[in-house]
Amino acid sequence: MIFLSMAVYGVVSFQWFFWGYNLSFAPEASRFIGTLSQVGFMNVDMQPSIGSPKIPAIGYAIYRMMFATITPMIALGAIAKRGRVAPALVFAFVWSTMP
Length: 99
Description:
Blueprint: H1 2-25, H2 57-76, H3 85-97
Helix pairs in contact: 1-2, 1-3, 2-3
């Protein structure tokens, strides 16, 4: 179970770094889905975040990544010792891609 949690953390962190943050919190996004203008945290630095002008965008992105990684871990806790690792990782990746 610990291996699955760490693997989910790695997969979702990878996804969040490349396009998850953009699809959820891009500054020039529409009401439903974001854009891919900041792929790979490009230009996500000390500029004001979308959550608060006092918080830097990189801090806000990493803070939100924590919730993006914990949520599939909690959901996958239901398959402990019953599920396989590969389908669980695919599920976590798809779950975290949908904003």
